[in-house]
Every structure is written in C-alpha cells, then in structure tokens.
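User: I'm preparing a small set of examples for a lab meeting where we compare how different chains pack in three dimensions. I only have the primary sequence for this one, and I'd like the structure in token form so I can line it up with the others. Please keep the answer compact; I'll paste it straight into my notes.
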Amino acid sequence: MATPLRPIECSAQPLCFSFHPQKDIVAAGLVDGTLEVHDLVAKKQASGHDDVSSHHEDDQHMDSDNEEDDYDTILSTIYVAKKKKQAAASSSTTSPSPSASKKATQGPSCRDVLFSGAANQTTGENRGGGGGEYLYTVCNGGSLRCLDSELACSILDQSAENDDNDDVASSPAILWSIENAHNNVGINKLYQLPYNSPCGPNILATGDDVGTVRLWDTRMCASQKDCSNSNSNPFDNLMKPPQGCVQQWKVNHDYITDFTSNDNGTSLLATCADGKLSVFDIRYVNKNLSNNKGGGGGGPKSIVLPDIDPNWDPTQNQQPLHQEKSSHQQKQKQPTTWESHGYTQSDNQEDELLSCTFIKQSSKLLCGTQEGILSLFSKDIWCDVSDRYPGHPQSIDAILKIDEDTVLTGSSDGLVRAVQLLPNRLLGVLGGHDGFPVEALGWSAGRKMVGSISHDEYIRLWVSCVVGVI
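Assistant: Understood. Below is the structure token output for the 470-residue chain.
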C-alpha cells in the first residue's frame, strides 16, 4: 500500500466530494445537510509535503492528537438541506407506526456536490478548459442548488445561523434553488454534460431514488432567485417538471447510481440499481429544444416507462398464431425507443450496476457491480456485456479512470485497487479505509492527488505519482 497524505477532516461524515477544477480546493457534502469547503494548499504547506521523499517522514506523526488539532483546513460551512417539518406535524397528531416515525424523523443530508467544469470527475479531465465558478448541490429532500464558489469559500459556520431559519436559500452564496426538483423524491446523483455537448455547456443531469433522470438548463434555472414556489399548490408540478427542466426520462425502477458521457457529449449513460444500463441521446433533447424555440413544441419532453405489474401473467393474453405474426410484423415497422424517445437500455444484468466510466478511447464502458464484477459494454452494443472481470470480494462502488487501460476501484471491503483492463490484471492496492466501504473517488486539480471517502469523517488523499508506480 502507498503512504497517504494527511487526510482532510470534516465535521461530519461526507457523503460526496468534488475537487475544484483549477484550485486546490475540495467541497464535501455532509450527512447532516451541510456543505464544507476545505483548502488543500494549506494542508500541504502545514504538513510539509513538497515531494514524494518527504511523505514518509511527515506521515509518521499522523497519529498524534495534538498535532491533528493544529491543522484546520476548513474555509466555509453552508447549510444546503432544508429541514423537514413532518416530524413536528406527526408528533402533534396520533402516534404513527414505527416505520412512519422513522421516515418522518429522517434528517436532511447533502448527497452530491459538483464544481462546474469538473463534470468528468471519474477521469480528471477538464473538458471545458476552465470552470469552478459555480458549485451545485443536491439533497435527499429533492432540492437542487447553485452556489457562487467564491462566496461559498468565504462563509464560515453559516449552518449555525440557519438552525432556527427554514429559508436555506437566504444564504448570499446561493444563486438559485429548486426545492422540489424531483417531486419530493431524493436526488442521488449529479452530473454536468461536457462543454461540447449538443445542448451546450449549461446542462446538468440529476438522478433520483426511483430511477428518474432529468436534464436542467442552468440559464433557465437562474432566471429567478428561488424556484421553490412555496405558496403554490403542491400538486402543480406532479404532471409538469419545474422551471429549468428541459428533459425527463423515467425508464428505470430503482435509484440512479452513476453518470458518465462520451467525449463529444452526444450520449449520457446512467447505471441503476435495478440492473439496467440506460443510454440517453442528447441530440434528441437538442432537437426538441430547437423545436420549442421555434414555436413547434410545448414544454419539456417527459418519457415515462410504466412499472410492470409483478402479478401479470403473459399466458392470459395469448393470441392465435396468425395474429401473433401480424403483431410481430407491426412491431418491426415501429421505430425503436432510441428513434422515438431518445433512449435505449441494456438487458437486466441481474446485478446492481453501481459505477461506470469509459475506457479504450470510449470504445468500452466499464461498470462496477454489487457482486464485485467489472462488466464491460462495447460501444453501441448496449444490450448485454461483452466481457466480465471478476476478482473483487465485495461490491465496486466507485471507479476512477487513470488512463485508457487502467482504473482505480473503490470496493466495500475498504480497499482502493489499481486494475488493468484488456488484458485484465490486478496491479496493486493504493490504500484503504480500515475496512469501511469506499464510497467515492476523485482527481484533484491537475491530477495532483487522488481523494476517497468512506463511512468516517475523513477525505483521504494520495499523491498521483504513487498511483503510476503501483
């Protein structure tokens, strides 16, 4: 294992993190609903890590509690998750069931955070050549927020001011907010499409707990300060997506675990816990947006695939043979879902797909699964996997691309491994989290460091030069 740098300590368990694409800054979304921004430069200067030879000498003092107290890298703390009122309402009425009370008292949390221009967190490539001006967050309550990154780095302990204030959007760092971005469903993943995407550089993708994927135009979201519409009817947005949403797909039936896209941004790929890979055509969205601008369309397109009844018996609707042939001929004439609705899906892999990234010049999509298998899909052949690489003892929750042939994997056994694909080979172990599952991996600005988080209060860091010599 490689010797890690001194970790970044957060005030609570981080659920997600994002490195600034240009500065040595990292933002972490915490389990208590706060957003913390930490300075990596101050941490490196205080610990004296100027070259690889000095890491081993300085890291001998990592276990000293007095020395840990001298290192405080936090730049700001902002509360971004609105507290829920269900708990107070339920306590005033009749006593609910144990399951209901548990759901009512669930606290707010920040599930994902992303600096603008840092969309390709799994590869470390800054496709836009800039970025970092904005900081996006999503929460388990369904909120989507945009913050000014400069202001977000200078507001210290704003969470304490909001203990009695339910209006989170009153923070000066928050530029716009959409409180009910997914109809009271928690948002699990956030992604920004590349700058060369057909829809332009201002498109965000969000995936929620029930498999819905929505695309947002940040320019439309920024047209008003607060999109919460707290005084409006709560049923208004059940049939119509909120302002700023330009496309919606509901074709999966479990939570969205990860996003990635190809180099030219024409396809958005989403892995889901229901065992299916979904591929969305961004050119289809761009065509609809062009039609709407020209007056030929109404609002955002919404593609909803209904849930299949588990009690449905296909033998009850059997047809005569000649009718089956005619219906089969009609189906052959019908357009595919890619042509008509802008998406396609793989077969059910009978295993949860938890992470993904492109390798081999975007000719292969690598997916991590619940069973610890690395599954490979070939480009434009999304119906089933073309290759599998078993070997991880537990689930692969995170994948970080090193180059076109090598990736880092974060597994539930607490280890970060370097793996070569095609030919398949385990290169070594970068480090671990003392047996706790590795939930996320990411590159810092300029690919100087690798960061990872687990079920503790630390963001662990390794120098990138160590990754290349494993």
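A couple of notes for your slides: DSSP finds twelve helices and 29 strands in the chain. The longest helix spans residues 321-333.

User: Perfect, thanks.
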